[in-house]
Amino acid sequence: MTKSDRQISERTKSEAKTTAILSGAMKEFLQNGYAGTSMDKVAKSARVSKATVYSHFGDKENLFNAVMQDLVKDKFQQVMSLEKPQSLEQDPQVVLSGMMTKMLANIQNNRSFQDFMRIIIGESGRFPELAKAYVNNVAKPTIEILTKYLKSHPALELADPEATVRVMMGTMVYFVMLQEMLHGKDIVPLEGDRVIKTLTDLITEG
Amino acid sequence: MTKSDRQISERTKSEAKTTAILSGAMKEFLQNGYAGTSMDKVAKSARVSKATVYSHFGDKENLFNAVMQDLVKDKFQQVMSLEKPQSLEQDPQVVLSGMMTKMLANIQNNRSFQDFMRIIIGESGRFPELAKAYVNNVAKPTIEILTKYLKSHPALELADPEATVRVMMGTMVYFVMLQEMLHGKDIVPLEGDRVIKTLTDLITEG
DNA sequence: GTCTATAGATCGATAGAC
DNA sequence: GTCTATCGATCTATAGAC
């Protein structure tokens, strides 16, 4: 083994640790929030020593931001993958209701996405820049894609597509938030399909 | 001063401490969340000793629940006060848009309400019973009042008033959440009036 | 780079004086 | 009932060996 081989091997090992730390920290932060997560827990979850965590990420706040920026980048990719399937479907009513059904299914049984939203909202007071990163890289692209779609269908005769998109997104987000995140499923039960049908009808029969 | 006078005086003092502790704890919990708030901070904020906090509320979790139940009760009263002003207005379009304008104004510049929502959502994973208390005592009554109103106006010809109410509430909540709580005001700017007009038109021109 | 061991501060909670 | 003082655990972060 040459000297440069050893360098590569060690760099690879170090990068593997970085990944393990990010992964362990992600699990802990999503589960317990920023203040509720200790660096000991992170180290244990990543199966490295606490000193290694510090040598890779400096301090707790920096690690938290790294984890969350990774997650934001992840959600950005997911949003962008919604761009292509502008299906050949012509009927906006079918397309809209199909889009929302898909969105709802993707979120409703996705615990880790709900944990992500919980952290973004819960820590938005103490980490405003994190919240802004979410708005810039997740909410804004989603709004733009939906607005672009609504605008490309003048047959809908929407007076204000931008505001209409907010109605759509708000309806979906609030539904998942109330039923799942806030555990309202059994207290104020409601079928997601009813909400989607109502919203679709409101928009297409305006 | 008789013995019973002294008892009254001391009971009054003790009750004043209870109030001070609840008030100080409320400030701290709303600002820093559950894990981010220490009992030392609470004691300092309430200007009592830490031992007094413990003698009144047992432990931290109990104090947190007491504070949040107080807040939930508060919001419940606010929701209920919306019941009466079923104005003499006949035009649902005017009533709806007026109601939502009022709701938005009440929330949009209300930092403490936003902090409250942040905690409810942020802690809903570790305090599911608190989230359920919110749904039972704030979200559900609001939904019921709005549903009752929509149902009392058959002229609106709504196919599904229950689901329509979710669209309304989701739109309002998401708007405030994105613009204010998540600091999106400058990133995805939008006039609240446009959202209200769009929503009102969708519902009344359906 | 990674570990063990530990410093120094702060945590939740309590004992004991008044 | 309320305080000061303190306990033991846990916290963030680092020093020093390998």
From TrEMBL, chains A, B:
Descriptive protein name: TetR/AcrR family transcriptional regulator
Domain of life: Bacteria
Residue ranges of domain HTH tetR-type in the record: 15-75
GO MF annotation, one: transcription cis-regulatory region binding
A Pfam family matched in the record: TetR_N
SUPFAM superfamilies cross-referenced by the UniProt entry: Homeodomain-like (SSF46689), Tetracyclin repressor-like, C-terminal domain (SSF48498)
GO process terms (BP): negative regulation of DNA-templated transcription
Keyword terms, alphabetized: DNA-binding, Transcription, Transcription regulation
DNA-binding region: 38-57
Keyword DNA-binding: yes
